[in-house]
Design a protein that fits this description.
The complex is a heterodimer of chains A (about 625) and B (about 375). Chain A is an alpha+beta fold and about 625 residues long. Helix content of chain A is about 35%, strand content about 20%. Chain A has 22 helices and 23 strands. In chain A, α10 packs antiparallel against α22 (about 595-610) and α14 runs antiparallel to α21 (about 505-520). The longest helix of chain A is centred in the N-terminal third of the chain and has 36 residues, at about 10-45. Chain A is elongated. Chain B is mainly α and about 375 residues long. Chain B has 15 helices and three strands. Chain B has a three-stranded antiparallel β-sheet. The radius of gyration of chain B is 22 Å and the shape is globular. Chain B starts with a helix and ends in an 8-residue tail after the last helix. Classes of the chains: A alpha+beta (about 625), B mainly alpha (about 375). At the A-B interface, α1 and α2 of A face α1, α8, α11, α13 and α14 of B.
Chain lengths: ~625, ~375
């Protein structure tokens, strides 16, 4: 190296370095300017955009679902409650080992394969910090197991949500209806904003009819969350308004008695306070436990209910359409009196059968097969009602004509929806010549009028319609739409009046007297329930044929399949002078009215026992 | 030649001015003050960025103390010694890198560490200083501007450690080290024709390389790197959040420890690589300007030291260290603001971490050694 001494030109090197430093500095300033421009642009020009983004990051709007209104009976007995239901969820982000956690949970609580399957589907759809539900409706023991083991189960949470609970199970199933999980179809029709955070909606019955009032208004809170979605604090809160409570006309005790009386049978009881139109009891059996539907009924349970021959899901009180049988006779009698075709003293000869002029066919009276003859040589109105004389009403029906019957019975609300405040009500049929031409495309035959006269043939009514018609008789012409709800929150609801039925007082007296004889008369068809009765009751029995009986064939109950036996019906109101309850009972295939009237007696007893009159 | 150089300081006469206390201690006072201000500012931001953890501040404070001690110690040796030691440091560093390749300790799929007696360290850190020092030594002892064959030797000297580091793999560090070497060549006065020529060749070879040499998935990775927002949930999420943090800071910021993006964990790596976003969110553009102001003053002082250096070695080393320091700033701030692809580069003296701080301060120690060299008469 020493041989090649390099002479460095220090001044030149310094000049070079100075020039390069200037270039480098220029470059540095340029790039710093670029950085500054970038930060200026982000922080000054786009400040609004990023402020908003940052707020959106931090602040989340959380819905606060309202508390669903409660439902009480007339005396404050709670019929539909809200109870906390505990849901077991996993926050995947905090779970250390998912499979191990699932296995550990499986030992603490029951987890079905279907739960796991649904969990895995949901887990794929949610963000890692959202809780993914694994099991709904934990019971107390399961909750305790989880609580004790929580320290070794990171990411496992148990959350409470208020959920509908029906403390009386099937007793009010048909009267109240039920709520269930909102389905996609409902999702499309509801105001989604109002249902944010709500998982249930009224599906049927009162729960559906009063959905808007029961639901309440959703509230909101703005919360600050961190990047993992954990809520750190509540910034603002707008409380939800709870739904309105409903106080019904229904009476728990009455409902219980009616339900007990119908136990093991298919049937329906509707009791109405004729003064208010309030429905005091509304029972359809068999029923089901409404709680099954709240969280989505299992297909096994649902199939069992759907496929049962007894159709427990069918609300017989408003959906069951039955021939009313002789229970229409008081109304037909009123029609005859009002039309001037009969008076209370008018009599009809009764050989046990009736024949239309010019027709050889004999229309039999029910008593013919028992006594081989009629009720009496001459039957008057009182006896016709008390003993349910068919011949008397065949004659009257013929003279009224089917349209006359139609027009008059229409005033009692038969053959059309009563307008009750629940869902799924059916109209029944009150036949007329026009109706038959429209519905069946056939002319009306005179013999068919006779059938209608005794509540058979095409005529179909619901138990609710019969109860309403009975309360019209009880009030002598006042007609109200039946109502289940008495108070909506603080507002008293009144049952709307339907055009009153104006009739001669003497005519009412005559018919009511006939109905009194049904129960209290020596030969009344329901005299069996009069024993020990401390009040007076007006009633009317009815038997509805399920299958047509051939001309002159003998009806033998024992030889007929149980399902083909006659329905037993009974309508009644009491106390006679100032009625406070009108009731309609039907027992499907009960054989005859004797299956129905003891039930009415028990219900009326229970009511009058409690109602100081 | 080395004899001649070693003689030079002794050959000069009296100093241009009497040495002050700072000069006697071999400390550059303006640079020290600026560094103290910067590290203090960094600790303030770190307290907030670490979720108001005093522990993190104390830990980082200890690193700073260590780093200042290293800086002070390095400033005590004159540039002649540093120049002499430079090639040995380089050889040692390359040996370590080779050892890493053979027997290194791995973490997260990369093999970057060497374990010596229970102490784990990263040899690439040595090269961050050894490469510019070696280039300065090699070119400083030759006539400048450098001849082509000298440039070729320098490129080889740069390529060896870079190649070893790329294999670890650590592309970011490799590029920074390569840049620090190239800056040395640039400062030594390499001809512009050479620079532009190389640049043109690089540009024209990029297209065929892209077309024929890269697999589709590699292209995809590069594209994602260049446009992170195309991957909103992965790498892009980080950038979206850091831009949101910066932008929502506005002019005056949300206030110290009041940044919602950082305090609520929306910002990734808020106390390390992304700490500038915390600063920008909480102190606003004002705070960014303050930081940039400090950086600019440090850079200006560093250039000034280089301009006044007494030897080519000192000049080239200063220029290289200063530009590398700037590249750290630019790459980090540009990456967090979404200007540049995301590469793991800390914000100098602000991001939490020990090694980078010690290496950077060691570099400033070298600058101070240069600035307090004995001065030549008549300069």
């Amino acid at each position: 190296m020493a041989s090649r001494v390099v002479l460095k030109d220090t001044q030149r090197e310094q000049r070079i370095f100075g020039a390069r430093s200037l270039v480098a500095l220029g470059f540095v300033v340029l790039l710093l300017g670029l950085l500054l421009a970038r930060y200026y642009n982000l922080q000054i020009n786009e400040f609004e955009v990023y402020s908003t983004a940052s707020e959106r990051n931090r602040v989340q709007l959380q819905p606060l679902p309202p508390k669903r209104g409660l439902i009480y009976d007339r005396n404050g007995v709670l019929l539909a409650d809200n109870r906390p239901s505990y849901t077991l969820s996993l926050i995947l982000e905090r779970v250390e080992d998912l499979e191990a956690t699932l296995a550990a949970l499986g030992e603490l609580v029951t987890i079905e394969d279907s739960d796991l399957e649904k969990f895995r589907t949901r887990a794929r759809q949610r963000r890692p910090y959202d809780p993914v539900p694994l099991r709904f409706r934990l019971n107390d023991v399961e909750q305790a197991y989880i609580a004790v083991n929580r320290h070794r189960l990171p990411g496992v949470t148990v959350e409470a949500q208020l959920q509908r609970y029906y403390p009386h199970g099937e007793l009010f199933a048909h009267a109240l209806g039920y709520v269930g999980r909102i389905n996609t179809q409902e999702m499309a029709s509801i105001d989604q904003a109002a249902y944010r955070g709500t998982f249930h909606i009224g599906k049927i019955g009162l729960e559906r009819r009063y959905e808007n009032e029961l639901h309440g208004e959703v509230g909101y809170q703005t919360v600050e969350t961190n990047a993992h979605g954990r809520v750190l604090r509540v910034l603002e809160r707008f409380d939800p308004s709870p739904g309105e409570d409903l106080i019904l006309h229904l009476d728990y005790e009455l409902q219980r008695v009616a339900h007990e009386q119908l136990a093991g049978r298919r049937g329906a009881v509707v009791a109405i306070d004729p003064l208010t139109g309030g429905v005091l009891a509304m029972v359809s059996t068999p029923a089901f436990d409404s709680n099954l539907f709240v969280n989505g009924i299992s297909s096994r349970d649902y199939n069992a209910l759907r496929d049962s021959r007894d159709v427990p899901l069918f609300n017989r009180t408003v959906q069951g359409q039955y021939p009313p049988g002789s229970t229409v006779k008081p109304m037909i009698a009123m029609a005859g009196l009002e039309a001037g075709l009969i008076d209370p003293e008018f009599t009809v000869p009764d050989p046990g059968w009736y024949r239309l002029p010019g027709d050889r066919r004999r229309y039999r009276d029910w008593i013919l097969r028992i006594r081989g003859t009629g009720h009496a040589p001459e039957v008057d109105l009182k006896m016709a009602l008390a003993e349910s004389c068919d011949v008397y009403f065949y004659d009257l029906a013929r003279r009224l004509t089917v349209d006359g019957i139609h027009n008059y019975l229409d005033l009692y609300g038969l053959g059309r929806r009563t307008g009750i405040d629940t869902t799924a009500e059916r109209p029944g049929v009150l036949p007329s010549k026009d109706w038959k031409r429209g519905a069946l495309g056939q002319p009306w035959y005179p013999g068919e009028t006779l059938s209608v006269g005794i509540g058979q043939g095409y005529m179909l009514t619901t138990p609710l319609q019969l109860a309403v018609a009975t309360s019209v008789l009880a009030t002598r012409g006042e007609h109200r739409e039946p109502r289940l709800v008495q108070w909506l929150g603080d507002d008293a609801l009144e049952a709307p009046m339907v055009a009153p039925l104006i009739a001669d007082g003497a005519h009412w007296d005559a018919v009511v007297e006939g109905m009194r004889e049904v129960v209290h008369g020596r030969r009344g068809t329901a005299k069996a329930i009069a024993r020990g009765m401390e009040y007076e009751m007006a009633g009317k029995t009815g038997t509805a044929q399920v299958i047509g009986i051939a001309q002159d064939a003998v009806y033998d109950e024992d030889e007929i399949d149980e399902r083909h036996r006659n329905h037993g019906l009974f309508i009644a109101f009491a106390p006679l002078e100032a009625p406070t309850i009108a009731v309609a009972v039907i027992v499907e295939n009960g054989g005859g009215s004797s299956a129905a009237y003891p039930i009415a007696r028990a219900v009326v007893d229970a009511w009058l026992d409690r109602e100081p009159s | 030649m080395s004899e001649y150089l070693r003689q030079m300081p002794e050959n000069v006469g009296p100093l241009t001015r009497p040495p002050g206390v700072a000069t006697k201690l071999h400390v550059d006072a303006p640079l020290l003050v600026l560094l103290l201000l910067l590290t203090a500012y960094g600790l303030l931001v770190l307290y907030s960025a670490s979720g108001q953890s005093m522990d993190a501040v104390v830990r980082q404070g200890r690193y700073f103390v260590l780093a200042y001690v290293v800086m002070f110690a390095m400033a005590q040796f004159n540039t002649v010694r540093w120049s002499r030691w430079s090639p040995w440091g380089y050889l040692l560093g390359v040996a370590f890198l080779a050892a890493v390749a053979v027997a290194g300790v791995g973490a997260k799929g990369a093999q970057r560490w060497l374990e010596l007696g229970g102490f784990r360290f990263q040899p690439s850190e040595i090269m961050k200083l050894a490469v510019p020092m070696t280039i300065a030594w090699y070119l400083g002892s030759r006539v400048l501007p450098p001849a082509s064959r000298h440039i070729a030797v320098c490129l080889l000297l740069i390529a060896i450690p870079c190649g070893l580091i790329i294999r670890q793999p650590d592309l970011g560090t490799s590029l920074l080290i390569g840049a620090s070497g190239l800056f040395g060549i640039f400062m030594a006065g390499i001809s512009w024709r050479f620079i532009f020529g190389t640049g043109l060749v690089a540009i024209f070879s990029a297209w065929p390389a892209w077309m024929f040499m890269l697999e589709d998935y590699q292209k995809q990775r590069i594209l994602t790197l260049l446009n992170p927002e195309s991957d909103k949930l992965g790498a892009g999420w980080n950038i979206i959040q850091s831009k949101t943090a910066i932008g929502s800071g506005g002019w005056s910021g949300k206030g110290w420890t009041q940044g919602t993006q950082s305090q609520l964990d929306f910002l990734p790596e808020s106390h390390t690589d992304f700490i500038i976003a915390v600063l920008a969110e909480e102190f606003g553009l004002q705070g960014v300007l303050l930081l940039l102001g400090l950086y600019i003053l440090i850079l200006l002082r560093a250039f000034w030291i280089g301009l006044n250096a007494q030897s080519s070695y000192g000049r080239i080393l200063c220029g290289s260290i200063t530009l590398t320091f700037f590249v750290y700033i630019f790459v980090n701030m540009g990456m967090v603001a979404g200007l540049l692809p995301v590469v793991g580069v800390p914000l100098p003296l602000v991001s939490a971490g020990g090694t980078s701080v010690v290496t950077l301060m060691a570099g400033f120690g070298l600058l101070m050694a240069v600035s307090t060299e004995k001065r030549v008469v008549g300069q």
